[in-house]
Q: What sequence folds into this?
């Protein structure tokens, strides 16, 4: 599956799954207090939220067009994310998969975590 990155997101705004992993893993070792005011966690969470929104829009567009969606995420605000589990999922992906946009990692993870009904 290849999701198109909308024109509103420039290529430099979209990171790869591997880059997300490389930047997020060290943050797990920091204290909660040190993360509250830091820019990096907020930027990464925004990257994840943006990727999730693009995946959700593609899912909704597929349903509206009568196609089986690539993902079956629950309604907005109902999905649960364990960041350690998500990072472990990316880490287990082959390097070629990690080199793809974060959206790809989100799609692969959501297929496993929220599979579509048969």
A:
């Amino acid at each position: 599956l290849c999701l198109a990155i909308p024109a509103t997101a420039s290529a430099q705004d979209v990171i790869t799954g591997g880059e997300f992993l490389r930047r997020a893993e060290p943050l797990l070792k920091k204290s909660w207090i040190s993360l509250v005011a830091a820019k990096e966690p907020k930027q990464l969470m925004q990257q994840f939220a943006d990727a999730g929104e693009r995946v959700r829009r593609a899912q909704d567009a597929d349903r509206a067009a009568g196609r089986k969606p690539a993902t079956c995420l629950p309604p907005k605000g109902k999905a649960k994310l364990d960041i350690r589990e998500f990072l472990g999922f990316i880490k287990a992906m082959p390097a070629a998969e990690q080199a793809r946009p974060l959206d790809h990692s989100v799609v692969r993870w959501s297929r496993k975590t929220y599979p579509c009904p048969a």
In short: Residues 39-64 form the longest helix (26 residues). The chain is about 55% helix and 0% strand. Residues 36 and 66 are 43 Å apart (CA to CA).
